[in-house]
Design goal:
Blueprint (H helix, E strand, L loop, with lengths): L11 H5 L6 H18 L1 H12 L10 H10 L2 H21 L11
Helix pairs in contact: 2-3
């Protein structure tokens, strides 16, 4: 994380720009993950969870009690932020399906 202090207003646009991503590289990685999950199923999910989340899962199923307890632990403000982010992600990716797009998201 970068922390900026006392930034000139003229620098704001540069700092707020989204980073550019080489979509070809990303597409290749995503397709590799999908293919691995398609061919190896749960074993691939467990391997990726171990690799990226540093967690070893014995079971991929979340029980009802565990789920409900987790939901209760999430503050309402965070639930609202997650739903807003979900909506923004859906809007963004729907716009990606066509060429040349402008996306407006909620604040």
């Amino acid at each position: 994380m970068r922390i900026y202090k006392n930034i000139q207003k003229s620098e704001w646009p540069q700092l707020c720009r989204r980073p550019k991503l080489q979509t070809g590289t990303l597409d290749k990685l995503v397709n590799e993950v999908f293919e691995k999950v398609k061919t190896s199923g749960d074993a691939a999910l467990k391997a990726y969870t171990r690799q990226f989340d540093k967690v070893v899962l014995e079971n991929l199923v979340v029980g009802t009690k565990e789920w409900d307890a987790g939901v209760e632990d999430v503050p309402e403000v965070l639930k609202e932020a997650i739903l807003r982010a979900k909506k923004n992600i859906e809007i963004f990716h729907k716009a990606q399906q066509s060429e040349g797009f402008k996306v407006e998201t909620e604040l």
